[in-house]
Amino acid sequence: MNYRSLGRSGLKVPELCFGTGTFGGANEFFKSWGSTQDAEAAHLIDICMEAGCNFFDTADIYSDGHSESVLGKAIAHLPRQDVLLSTKATFRGNNLGPNNVGSSRYHLIQALERSLTRLNTDYIDVYHLHGFDATTPVEETLNTLDKMVREGKVRYIACSNFSGWHLMKSLSVSERYGWSRYVGHQVYYSLIGRDYEWELMPLALDQGVGALIWSPLGWGRLTGKIRRGQPLPENSRLQNKSVVDAGPTPDWEHVYKVVDALDALALETGKTIPQLALNWLLQRPTISTLIIGARDEKQLRANLASTGWNLTPDQIAKLDAASAVPLAYPYWHQIQFDERNPFPVPQTHTS
């Protein structure tokens, strides 16, 4: 397992991070992700550690906190300094109180203490805001996070699902007051969802913010189980009718076009479709780690095998072409003048 810097920080993280949203399965929504319990969770954690994947991601809302609890038990036998933990706060849990949501000082302090208890640890290595809270002053949020770092309860702070201006404003406020800054941004990015490249990737390059990629296989659409004219797999999370869980409604013809290109490369390389899709991401700018999930040992070992080799430039170009989509404004305009405004990766644009 190779290690990379998390943005412009001194923290080294493995190229792959194990996402534990499948742990717990405490309600119907998260059961569609998985319902891994204590013994199996510990087994999967040990497999990760053997492979050098010592970074584990969760969130306080995953299975109403049960994901954190199961993860805390699963790592209890390991030296704490050998493990990197990431968790998140901001979204509403199962408490409907008016202050049990958002990034206020009130909520974040409570959320962190609860996460520390469930994870059975004294500190979080990477603490994320799960989303942007436009109802709380950015200064209040960042001052609270900075205090957590100074108290030693959090090592590094990061955000997730921010717009470009959300992130840039936050970085500017941190710089103004000398507070801890976001070193990572947990974002959606995949071969069938390349919007990250338009605004957030150039920002991350400029500001030194590392990308932690969630759903790198596009909500299971790049697992190799999705084909033209075939029904969705019975145990797929895509069977969940929740729009949030299934992601945006895809252009299925575009998905099939990408899968066709992956199929061709699978025959050429002997790699699986998920391995190819993950390896493509690992060669993009700003990427610090990919958050992979797994319901069982077989799936986990297959995903772990996406590292230690690289697609060739020609193979990358084929996947770039198959997954390209027309740019939104102003990016289609800007790309025409790339002599002065180069994009980090090749793009398609309309005239």
Uncertain residue segments = none
Q: What is the number of independent domains?
A: 1
Number of helices: 13
Counting DSSP E segments of at least 2 residues, the number of strands comes to: 10
Q: Which topology does CATH recognise?
A: TIM Barrel
Please state the CA-atom Rg, rounded to the nearest Å: 20 Å
Mean pLDDT: 93
Beta-strand share of residues: 5-15%
CATH class: Alpha Beta
Describe the structure.
The protein has a single domain, classed as TIM Barrel (Alpha-Beta Barrel), CATH 3.20.20.100. It contains 13 helices and 10 strands. β7, α6 and β8 form a beta-alpha-beta unit. The protein is α/β, with parallel strands linked by helices. α2 packs across α3 and α9 packs antiparallel against α12. Strands 3-4-5-6-7-8-9-10 form an 8-stranded parallel β-barrel, surrounded by 6 helices. A two-stranded antiparallel sheet has the order 1-2.
Short account of what is shown:
With 351 residues, this protein is of the alpha/beta class.
Describe this protein with a few key phrases.
eight-stranded parallel β-barrel, alpha/beta, 351 residues, 13 helices, 10 strands, two-stranded antiparallel sheet, globular, TIM Barrel
Spell out the blueprint of helices and strands:
Elements: E1 3-5, E2 12-14, E3 16-19, H1 28-31, H2 38-50, E4 55-57, H3 66-74, E5 84-89, H4 105-119, E6 124-129, H5 138-150, E7 154-160, H6 164-177, E8 182-188, H7 200-207, E9 210-214, H8 243-246, H9 252-269, H10 273-282, E10 287-292, H11 297-304, H12 313-323, H13 331-334
Parallel strand pairs: 3-4, 3-10, 4-5, 5-6, 6-7, 7-8, 8-9, 9-10
Antiparallel strand pairs: 1-2
Helix pairs in contact: 2-3, 2-11, 3-4, 5-6, 9-12
